[in-house]
Amino acid sequence: MGVSDAEIKYVRENFEKKYADKISSDTYDERDLRRLRTDNVYATTFIRGPDRLDEGVDLVHESLRFRKEYGVNDLTEDSFDQWVWDKRALFLHNRTNTGHKILYVRVKEHKKDASKILEVKKFFIFWLEMSFRADPLEKVVTFFDMSEAGLSNLDMEFIRFILTCFKLYYPTFLEKLLIYEMPWIFNAAWRVIKTWLSQEALARIKFATKSDIQSYIDKDQLFEHMGGTAKLDEVEYRPTGGGDSAMFSDTSDGRRVTFSDSSDVDGSAHTPTLATSPNANNNASHRVTSPKSSRRDRNASASESGHFTGRLLTISPADELTFVADESGKEPYDVITLTNTLMHPIAFKVKTTAPEKYRVRPSTGVVKPGEAFEVYVYLLPGYMNTVERDKFLVMAMEVTGDTYDVSLWKTAPKDSIMEHRMRCVASNNVDFNVNLAPEGGMSRTHASARGGYKGGGIGQQAAMAASQAKSFLMGKLDTQQLHHPFKRPMSPMEMLIESNNQLRRRMGYLIISHVVFFILTLLFFGAFFCLGEDLFSSYLYFPFGYCVSNSWSRRC
Predict the structure, then answer these.
(1) Are strands 418-427 and 140-145 parallel, antiparallel or unpaired?
(2) Where are the domains of the chain?
(3) Over 403-451, what HEC string results?
(4) Most buried among 118, 265, 344, 351, by the most CB within 10 A?
(5) Region Disordered: which residues (predicted)?
(6) Which residues are CB-contacts of 180 (< 8 A; sequence separation ≥ 6)?
(7) What's this model's pTM, rounded to 2 decimal places?
(8) Model pLDDT for residues 299-346, shown as the tens digit of each residue
(9) The domain 260-446 belongs to what CATH superfamily?
(10) End-to-end Cα, the chain, rounded Å
């Protein structure tokens, strides 16, 4: 349930009254005070419910006092010694199957040391704040990886600090706390920790082992030692390396980013497009897309797991759009693939911090269940040198049909909208691409909708020949694919959808086989009840002998 403006106003005004002396005595960071007074989303994070507003007032005091004491607003990568990074004990990486970011705490890498505990606490806050700044309303899952941990790794002070962070300083930011493979020697410590927690807090703590961890985190998001496929040694531990951790600051000077609606020259959310420019994230310059199919392929350098799995949509690429300079002068572009793996339609909207630089086709629309949708983002001429300042925001929400009223974005509750930010990158590494589109044209309707391309049969044959030549030279298609130049390998998400469909069919066959087996079992026991010991010696006469034998009839 959303927080009303009246509730936010109540918390602000009562905080100003109750803690006026603290405000005047410089107890809080002025930046936090300014944010509390002007940012409704930030104020919302202290309100746990309409009947807990006074508690929210006190939480504001506790959080702001803590932030000033620990210098949270001034924490950067350079705030920590190299040994902190070398431990690789704390980091944000991947997401749960519900779309929440995971803050990993690798317990075996932590050793209790009173001389270093303050820096360790600040390091935890650094990662927590990074996720909080990216989206204060997107809750985080804290993951205690206790595999191979021992008593030497037990630090009750640090554990209590983490719990206090979510109780007082980030009171609405914890989704759950996952404890993985806790050794039995920690049972006594757990009994003590439970006494610190309320029933509400205990409900957010979940224990998991290797056998059931995938009920919380999908296999491709799990590390190998937990039964997954992700490699621990490939994690970017520093936030500038990429992924979710790169969202610590929206701009280089720390200013708030404002996203504006992207321009959509077609004005339609359902018009397919034909891409015409080379791009590092696509291995072919020809793309025909529609809401019913998606054939987007990443190049060989792209990661097979390079997608973000949100609670409503799966987005590829995961966190950055790459624009490649084209010597021919055509507009660089990249493609955002939105995949809906749910059972109901999902509306999307794409916004950018620099709408004057980009053309997005389409900028809004609906992704049907089990389908993928491609959004083309074109960079206009003259802006290649400034793209790294720009960001895109992909928004998604549930709708009831294939069409929707765009005004819903203004009235929908904040917590019902999924948001995912992407940064922009410029590149001069031009991939090998053959331009298949007619000059001067960037948008084409889907061939199947009108019986062919507007460019005519000759243009289509030329495009097919060019595509065959490119495929032969690059060695990416086999002989069969050369006769079908537009047949592309399925993307990972398409393969996942197809795998799910196959699993449903197999489950259907399995259920039918179980029903048949059950019926046969009933028949067997029924026959044994009637025939008794004669069943195995006289079964060849059954059911013919059943009708004429008096002994059988009497027995039945």
Answers:
(1) unpaired
(2) 5-72, 82-247, 260-446, 497-555
(3) CCCCCHHHHCCHHHCEEEEEEEEEECCCCCCCCCCCCCCCCCCCHHHHC
(4) 351
(5) 234-308
(6) 143, 144, 145, 146, 147, 208, 209, 213, 226
(7) 0.47
(8) 333 334 578 888 889 999 988 999 888 777 778 889 999 998 888 899
(9) Immunoglobulins (2.60.40.10)
(10) 65
